[in-house]
Amino acid sequence: MIRNLICTTCFAVAAIAQPTPTPLPQLLEEAAHNNRDILAALHGWRAAAQVPTQVSTLPDPEVTVQQFSVGSPRPFAGFSNSDFAYIGIGISQDLPYPGKLGLRGEVAQRDAAASRKQFEGAQRRIRAEVKAAYYQLSYLQRTLALIQRDGKLLDEIEKIAEARYRTGQGSQQDVLKSQLQRTQLLGELAHHHAAIEMTQAKLNRLLNRPPDSPAITADELTETSLPYTSQELLARVRTENPAVELEQEMVRKQSLQVELARKDFYPDFNVQYMWQHTAGQFRDYYMLSFGAKIPLYRRRRLDPELTEAVEELDRSRRTYESEVQQAYFEVRDQFIAADTAAQLLKIYREGSIPQAMATYQAGLASYESGKQDFETLLSAFLDVLHYDEEYWKTLAGHEAALARIERLTGVTLP
User: For residue 26, what are the contacts with CB-CB under 8 A and spacing of at least 6?
Assistant: First the structure.
């Protein structure tokens, strides 16, 4: 019954591999257009881009209508018999001290530039996450096929063990151990199916697809080369890493905030012009006024404002350097991970996997002829299973590390 169950499961695995694989570039394009994090960052950038012209424009002028009565609180009292009564219409305009509006516009431009870096960072982050999930899915689907193949190898072992047991050359323990190993393969299948479902759900979230969307089938992984040295990648951090560039924009913004805080020590102005109309027998009045807002509360408001701006500038500089160091660490970490994985892949391809398969084939023949015990054969079988799974797992990790390097440094790998 156990054999029938494992074979039925193998047929299910074969059915999974039948749908046409979805190319990774197609999913990346879909994520770029549909992912909610990317779209939110895009709208945030577009909104921030509208601010500079708002804050660098003069305040709206103010129109004033006045009515001045003489001799009585009644409207228009004295208008016909006194040259003091009038109806006035005026306009006034606030004028910030020269340079303030320009600085406010530059501060807003730096905010917009920072929002753009957030958008670019979201694009790269989602791109790397889609790639990592895709590689994980490919690994899981590939190892399902390996378990199917290994189930067939286990069939050979079990048949030989049963034949030897029937002829009195082997023990029942050998048969039971082979059946136990088959049961363990069933457990691995269940874990793989659960992991595939979780990875599919993650991809649906990243692509903003409905939960009941058709399952994605991944292409088989191939190793991608990294044509950059560690130093070449590190050199790109300050100019190509969105998180670092974001903090760099914040430093520039805070530098402008310090200049703006110093400008607040100078007065703002107001200009007003008014026309006052009297009765026909009297002359009209024309009045031009000029006012200034005196920055009087220097110790209570202006000095603390400047100190705050300077402290924020120092903080943003420290944050920028911290982000650079963090990016350096992540680039080194992913470069080492990718380089180590590349070395392991070569060892698996050229050494461990063919050697394990050869050892298994030789052990199978030796066990069948009674020259080798069952434990040695089972150990050789487990080596085949282990090295095959480790190869694909390492390959998925290698490709995911390269995807993170792309995100951190802006390089484009085929």
Answer: none
